[in-house]
Amino acid sequence: MKKIIIGLCALFIFIGITGCNSNAFIKDAIAIATDETGTFLINADQEKLYLEYDIVSEFSDIIIVRHNGKYGYINKEGKTLIKPQYQAAYPFSEEKAVVVSKGIYQIIDLNNKVLYTFESGITSNSYFSEGMLVVEQDGKFGYLNDSFQLAIEFKFDSAAPFSESQAAVGKELDGTIRYSYIDPKGRLQIRGNDESAYCYYYASYFNNGYAKVSLDDEHYAFVDENHLVVVDTIRFTRFDIRTGQYENIVEKIDYAQSEVNILIDGDKEITYFIVAYTSDVGRKYFLMNPNSTIIYYHYFTKHRLGVIENNYLPINLNNGSYGIYQFTTNPIYDPSSILDDEKYPYYFRQIEIDSKDSYSRIPMGINDFRNGYASFYTFNGKYGLVNTEGKVVLEAKYNQIRY
Questions:
Q1: Rounded CA gap, 70 and 101, in Å?
Q2: pTM of the model
Q3: Given this model, what pLDDT does residue 61 score?
C-alpha cells in the first residue's frame, strides 16, 4: 500500500499537479489561481501546485499562508519558509516582517529569528519601507526605524509607509482627518499651523516624483516633492456638433489613479497621470503629463484606463469588452473623435488578442498590468491572464486569479 501511495505522489509531481508531497515545488509560478478543485500556484505552462495551506495574501516572492488558524510564509515556488505558527503575520519587506505570537508583537527575519519584541501596548500591522515601520500606541501612530528605535513619536492620528523619503500622516481637525507629509526625521513638509500644514483631505504615496492628493474632498490633484500642484484641471478643445464650432472645456479632476507611470520613448521617459472628470453622460479619461499636456484621451461611461507597463495600456471599453494598446511615437488620429485631433493625437495602437479560446478572445474587462501580466474576465464570470503582447497565457477558466 505504501508503494502505491508513493507512486501516486510521484505521478502527480511529474504532471505538475501536486498536493500530497510537502517538499514539492513549482518552477516559474506567475499567479495564484482558484477553480472548482481548489487554490494553487500556477505557471505559464499551466502546471499547478496545490498546497496544504490556505493562501491569504497576494502573489509575491513571499506569500502569507494559513493552516489551522495559524499563519506562516512560503515562497512563490511553494517552498515553506516559515511553518504556520503565528496568530497573525504581515508582509515581508526589507527582509523583515511583523508577526504576533501569544498576543506579543515581534519582528522576525526569513530564518524565523526574532529580531525585536515590541513593548506592551505597541502594535503594528504594517511593513518596513525605506527603513521605517508604522507603529501604534493608544490610537496614535509613530515610526520605528530598522535599528528598532522609536524614530518618530506617537503623535499622528493616521500614518502611511514611507515612499520616496516622504510619508502621509493624518491629524483630526474639526472631526475630520486631514493629511500632510513628513520626512524621515518627522518634520512636516508643508509649513504653517495645523490648518495650513494638514491641508489635504486625501494623500497618497509618492511614486516617480509625484503624489495624488485632494484639496477640497471632492477633486484631485498631483503635487511634486515640494508640494507644488502640477495638475489639477483638465483643459481641452471639443467639437460641438450642434454649433459646428470647437469649444474650450475646463474641468476639475474628480477621478485619478494613485500610480504615476512612465512611458518610454527612445531615450526619453514620459511621466503621465491617469485622470478623469464626470459629465452628465459619463466619465471621460485622459492621460496627462506634468505640464498638463494631454497625451491620450478616451470616453467611457463606466470603465477605466489601466496602468501602463512596458508601454502597454489596458483599456476597458464601454461596449463591455477590453483592449490592449501599445504606445507608439507616431501619432494616430481618430476620425470619429469629438476632440480636435490636430491638437490631441493619440499614440497607442491596439494589440490583437491571441487565444485559442473564443471566450478569452472577447473578454469583458481587464485589470492593471503587473510583472508583465494582466488578469481579465469574461461574461461567464471566469478569469484568465494575458501578457503585454496580447497573448493569453492562462485561458479564462478560473474563479479567481491573483498575480
A1: 10
A2: 0.85
A3: 96
